[in-house]
Design brief:
One of its GO terms (molecular function) is oxidoreductase activity. By secondary structure, the protein is α/β, with parallel strands linked by helices. The chain folds into 3 domains: 189 residues, 3-Layer(bba) Sandwich (FAD/NAD(P)-binding domain), CATH 3.50.50; 165 residues, D-Amino Acid Oxidase, subunit A, domain 2 (D-Amino Acid Oxidase, Chain A, domain 2, 2-Layer Sandwich), CATH 3.30.9; 44 residues. 32% of the residues lie in helices and 22% in strands. The protein has 13 helices and 19 strands. It has an 8-stranded mixed beta sheet with strand order 5-6-4-13-14-15-12-16, with helices on both faces. It has a 6-stranded mixed beta sheet with strand order 8-2-1-11-10-9, with helices on one face. Helix 2 links the parallel strand 1 and strand 2. The longest helix has 21 residues. It is globular and about 65 Å long. The protein starts with 8 loop residues before the first helix and ends with a helix. It binds flavin-adenine dinucleotide.
């Protein structure tokens, strides 16, 4: 048994003993066989079992429920999808509104299930503050983003600009220029959600086998070292681990995100900072930062990590001193009183980035394969939608869920766009990230000349255009 508790603050906080469930040691026949006990696999099992209790559903997990990103993420449960502007931009207005309503409803849907099933995971729906806080260009870029959202038909009730004085009622930072606020986001304790979901689906009759890595998969059949499962439907739900199940690795780039957590901070510190209702927050650089005040009063703060040549998965998440320092520097700029604070935990995980930079949900009825992924670091909410959608597709339903532009109803894996072969992937990804790092360094320096600032921004903007 591994020391799963060291995977993240969240796994460390669990009250349960973290005993593994039994491994698969037989040849089983099921209706649906799911690979991976993260949110995607568990939500799919949940919605299937709630609607069709007669189905035999088996989940095979290489380690333990929550071993992947689901037990390690930043705990933002967002009511949107990566790339939704591109996915929904061309739809007729009424259809677009319905799609946004579906996305904005994700946090409430999760909240309702938690309530119904008695899963306690510190769920608080208080929205998210995208803050302009480190340099003035952040304000311009957030305001531009807001214009884009307005053009898509989203109003004040969905996204609202907060001037620094209004922002200060929720969050007090060193150098605020304002913030974009949306109520469509909750925060939670990720590992409690994934572990609670696993217990919940088990109580509904789903069989979960742990330490049961799928070594070989094909339509209708999964094999582990000591057993196999034959099933009408196979659901690979491995997101950032797709490389372990060829040919899925072609479609998902495994990139890392890395976080740190402080010890619980005293009430006087939080009185200075705010976030009383557990709002999520970020600062609007291209470093993809995300933070939350946890239920036990820690600051958890993360930022984008790297990509390894050949799509190799990172397994050692003992953060280097540079990786810790970057995160400490970023939150220290927002909250100077925390510059010297002690970090109790530092960790990270792998997530899956699709080549089109938006999620996909697919059902291939001929081969009996259903999958949802490519959430690109925004999968806590998207995986709930993914699970609901896959359940509907497997059950042959035609509904609002299955008629969205991210759904390939009668799809085939080959319709997903593949990543370029190496070394193009590595060179391309790193060139883009380096341009973001350079931009951030130039803009964060108040002495940078205006022409240098513009050049750095234009270069990063140009590089970002390849992510569309
Ligand atoms: C550090 C970090 C921070 C993040 N923060 C946020 C956030 O704040 N908000 C947000 O919306 N999203 C966030 N994300 C993304 C989000 O966590 C993921 O998109 C989501 O958890 C994906 O869930 P999943 O079930 O698809 O994949 P995972 O949770 O990764 O689950 C996949 C499971 O498959 C198992 N597995 C892999 N290979 C095999 C095999 N061959 N056989 C059997 N089992 C296998 C793994 O052990 C794992 O348990 C973050 C991700 C990371 C890494």
């Amino acid at each position: 048994m591994s020391d799963w508790r060291t995977l993240s603050l969240w796994m460390d906080q669990l009250d349960e003993p973290l005993e593994p469930r039994p491994a698969l040691g037989a040849e089983l026949q099921a209706d649906v066989a799911i690979i991976g006990a993260g949110y995607t696999g568990l939500w799919t099992a949940y919605y299937l079992k709630r609607q069709a209790p007669q189905l035999r559903i088996v989940i095979l997990e290489a380690e333990t429920a929550g071993f992947g990103a689901s037990g390690r993420n930043g705990g933002w449960l967002m009511g949107n999808l990566l790339g939704e502007d591109r996915l929904l931009g061309d739809l007729p207005a009424a259809q677009r509104k319905a799609a946004f309503d579906l996305l904005h409803g994700i946090p409430d849907e999760v909240g309702a299930v938690l309530q119904r099933e008695g899963i306690a995971c510190d769920y608080r729906k208080s929205g998210v503050l995208y803050c302009a806080a480190r340099y003035p260009e952040q304000q311009a870029s957030l305001r531009e983003q807001l214009q884009g959202l307005r053009a898509l038909g989203l109003g004040e009730e969905d996204y609202r600009w907060l001037e620094p004085t209004e922002l200060a009622q929720q969050l007090r930072m060193a150098n605020p220029y304002g913030a974009l606020f949306t109520p469509h986001c909750a925060t939670l304790q990720p590992a409690r959600l994934v572990r609670g979901l696993a217990r919940c689906v088990e109580s509904l009759g789903v069989e979960i086998y742990e330490q049961s890595r799928v070594l070989d998969w094909q339509p209708g059949l999964l094999r582990t070292a000591h057993g196999s499962v034959r099933a009408d439907w196979i659901v690979p739900a491995v997101e950032g681990y797709a490389a372990s199940l060829p040919p899925l690795g072609r479609y998902q780039l495994p990139v890392q995100s890395l976080l740190v957590a402080t010890e619980p901070l005293p009430a006087e510190t939080w009185a200075q900072i705010g976030l009383e209702r557990g709002q999520a927050f970020s600062e609007a650089s291209r470093q993809v930062t995300y933070g939350q005040r946890t239920a036990d009063d820690r600051l958890v703060f993360g930022a984008r990590g790297g990509y390894r040549f050949g799509g190799q998965l990172r397994t050692d998440f003992n953060l280097t001193s540079d990786e810790r320092q970057l995160r400490r520097y970023l939150f220290g700029e927002l909250f100077p009183q925390l510059r010297e604070v002690r970090l109790s935990h530092a960790w990270g995980g792998n997530l899956g980035m699709a080549r089109r930079f938006h999620p996909h949900m697919l059902a291939d009825r001929r081969n009996g394969i259903a999958l949802s992924g490519g959430y690109g670091g925004e999968g806590v909410g998207a995986s709930n939608l993914g699970g609901r959608t896959l359940a509907a597709l497997i059950l042959g339903q035609d509904s609002e869920l299955t008629r969205q532009p991210w759904v390939m109803r009668d799809g085939h894996l080959s319709q997903l766009r593949s990543w370029e072969p190496e070394p193009c992937r590595w060179l391309g990804y790193n060139a883009i990230i380096q341009s973001f790092v350079h931009e951030d360094r130039v803009l964060a320096d108040p002495h940078s000349a205006p022409w240098r600032r513009r050049l750095a921004q234009n270069m990063a903007g140009f590089m970002e255009s390849f992510m569309r």
